């Protein structure tokens, strides 16, 4: 298979590197990566979607071949949403896209899915291992309390989120990534199930990881401590890796209160499921998008505790 077509997209004070697969007349799919990844994390999935969709993946600001602005303000949700808007304007100005996000790519995509800025521009949203921070803030208020039946699960999730606090320390994350970044591929092929032939991670990993800590410092505490009500009418598919060591299934609880059409799809996999199970992830994205395109998605799945 030939490689993707590369483009530069002018966004909110930065240029973003974008890559496209598939015919331009096919339904558009936009893939948004998380931390500490680049758009290359989506390549195994994009290649499997390219015969049915016009697929775009882009390096978010601070990652890969995109610009790396300085300062926390440059990484706030509003700037990330502006970047996504620029991508949609460039790749699909007249047709709503099927948006897919993983990790931080899903977290900041929720901002657009639940907001008004891109109303009518998103046909569906597939979220993988990246909850809406406002939804999580409400979840914490409701369930992180004595005698609540979900308290043990919430505490386990809190313990697994230790790295978020670590990323708020000055210098330490940068020193850690520069010292240990060369072991990341071994980690992905070992505990995360990435096939050994997969060409990943990107050579910019250490710089991407250091820049990307700004996402946590600019956005986590304000949204978790002062959550807003963030409903959406966009059809949502949650793909929930049940062996995810970062984002456990409890963070998907309560999402049904904020969505009109919700499909939950557990998968026996770890956090980087698009690398370990690209065929299955591509199939689930395609199935959900096709059901939106042909109008066959009607009944929501509002199971509150599916996992």
From TrEMBL:
<dbReference type="InterPro" id="IPR000639">
    <property type="entry name" value="Epox_hydrolase-like"/>
</dbReference>
<dbReference type="InterPro" id="IPR000073">
    <property type="entry name" value="AB_hydrolase_1"/>
</dbReference>
<dbReference type="GO" id="GO:0016787">
    <property type="term" value="F:hydrolase activity"/>
</dbReference>
<keyword id="KW-0378">Hydrolase</keyword>
<feature type="domain" description="AB hydrolase-1">
    <location>
        <begin position="27"/>
        <end position="278"/>
    </location>
</feature>
<protein>
    <submittedName>
        <fullName>Alpha/beta fold hydrolase</fullName>
    </submittedName>
</protein>
<dbReference type="Pfam" id="PF00561">
    <property type="entry name" value="Abhydrolase_1"/>
</dbReference>
<dbReference type="InterPro" id="IPR029058">
    <property type="entry name" value="AB_hydrolase_fold"/>
</dbReference>
